[in-house]
Amino acid sequence: MHAALTLIMTATLAAAPAPLAAAVADGFATGTTGGVGGATVTVDTTDELLTAIDTVGPLNIQVSGTIAITSKQGVRPNKTITGLGSTATITGGGFDFYKSSNVIVRNLTFTDAEDDAVNVGQQSHHIWIDHNTFVRPVDGSVDIVRGADYITVSWNHFAGTDKSMLIGHSDGAASTDVGHLRVSIHHNWFDGSRQRHPRVRFGDPVHVYNNYFTNNALYGVASTMNGGILLEGNYFAGVPYPCFSTSGYADSAPGRLVQRNNIFTASGACEAGGTVTEPSTYYGYTLDPAASVPSLVSAGAGAGRI
């Protein structure tokens, strides 16, 4: 074990607050256990955090206070990274998943990332991103690309972000992405964010349900390059272009999108068409009524709400 982490563990295991209650991943990330079976460490400096996420083996990492990092920092498999309290913050950089798996990221605020706040790529799988807040990343808040699979993004608050969530990084990535990029996106608040909630290429199915979309200036959801989105039980308020699919988007070819049980208030029409693999062939889920989504999600999404 890295000497620095040994010191962290020696200093914190005796005095650290008890770990937060275990959480259970759902959707496509079902079965993700994170750091279960590993030690629990509390980190409050950059060096401690970077050492912990680079440790081999299961580890439960509790983030205390505000920690500044740069660029995108790699996270090894079998980690749970959880913010303590309501103010744990990662600023200046983000997390990168390269051939990683079985990781949980919860209860953190990501601010001013100089690239992506969370990048899930290179065949990474079983990643659960839950109850975080994203503010002002230079690029994406959450990108899921390059053959990543079995991901759930739930109960997050995208607060005025621009490029909120990209699934499939380019039109030329069919060889790596077709048959992958299975993602569940539920109970997130896309709050004044501009676009990509998500923008999908190739992934099928991408299950977008019970999310709250408010004042998304450019568009809500886009399915392209034969991607398949099931959009159900969401609430759109003040979204001029809630959904694109059969006409494609920008330079990308059309995708497929099935929409059902959504509510559109002061919003445009949803462009839907084609058929999509039912997520219920992979996992069970309970759909909340779309009318309850604004109160449910605005009260429960984001860091500090677990």
From TrEMBL:
Location(s), subcellular: Secreted
GO molecular function annotation: pectate lyase activity
Signal peptide bounds: 1-22
Keyword Lyase applies: yes
SMART domains referenced in this protein's UniProt entry, alphabetically: Amb_all (SM00656), PbH1 (SM00710)
Primary location class: secreted
Origin: domain of life: Bacteria
Protein's UniProt keywords contain Protease: no
Key words of the record: Carbohydrate metabolism, Lyase, Polysaccharide degradation, Secreted, Signal
GO biological process: polysaccharide catabolic process
Annotated ranges, domain Pectate lyase: 36-242
One cellular component term from this protein's GO annotations in UniProt: extracellular region
Family: Belongs to the polysaccharide lyase 1 family.
Name of the protein: Pectate trisaccharide-lyase
Protein source organism: Paractinoplanes tereljensis
Gene: pelA
